[in-house]
TrEMBL record:
Lineage: Eukaryota, Viridiplantae, Streptophyta, Embryophyta, Tracheophyta
Keywords: Membrane, Repeat, Transmembrane, Transmembrane helix
Signal peptide: none
Protein name: Pentatricopeptide repeat-containing protein
Keyword tRNA processing: no
Transmembrane segments annotated in the record for this chain: 109-131
Matches recorded under Pfam families: PPR, PPR_2
Length: 165
């Protein structure tokens, strides 16, 4: 991969892994991920997200979960929780989905408040409805929007209102 004396960097690798994943070549993308690590080039959230999304889209949740667990302890960046949640919903694994939600919410409510409103309504709650778990969807929706203290609920409502005006 070295041309003209330039060594590949995280952007180069992320671009390649993203392209491979768009072509559903996740095993090839994993080889590039291994090469990055071997060359002491730390993968970033873009690199991991592409591969994680592809594993989920291909229904390979065991691999997605393994990769996710590899990302979480690194503390280099915030892992893409929604990618894994979407994969679990697509495979109707609602209980696993809720476990990821609990981990995500426990990390940092302020960081995830906007994410929760935007993605969880389209991913998790829709998944509950598809699975026929209407009461769980209703309870979860209520818990997400108003189960926190007033500051978080106000932040969410304010941002949601600003986004719809």
């Amino acid at each position: 991969m070295v041309r003209g004396g330039r060594e590949p960097d995280v952007i180069t690798y992320s671009t390649i892994t993203g392209s491979l994943c768009k072509d559903r070549l996740v095993n090839d993308a994993m080889e590039f991920l291994s090469e990055m690590v071997d060359r002491d080039i730390p993968p970033d959230v873009v690199t991991y997200s592409s591969i994680l999304h592809d594993f989920c889209n291909l229904g390979q949740l065991n691999e997605a979960t393994r990769l996710f667990k590899e990302m979480v302890p690194s503390q280099m960046f915030t892992p893409p929780y929604t990618a894994l949640m979407d994969g679990y919903c697509l495979q109707n694994q609602i209980d696993e989905d809720r476990k990821v939600l609990d981990i995500m919410v426990g990390k940092d409510l302020i960081t995830y408040s906007i994410l929760l409103v935007g993605f969880l309504h389209t991913i998790l709650i829709e998944g509950m409805f598809i699975a026929g778990k209407l009461e769980v969807a209703k309870e979860l929706s209520s818990k997400l929007l108003c189960g926190w203290n007033a500051t978080h609920c106000t932040d969410i409502q304010c941002h949601d209102h600003q986004g719809t005006s």
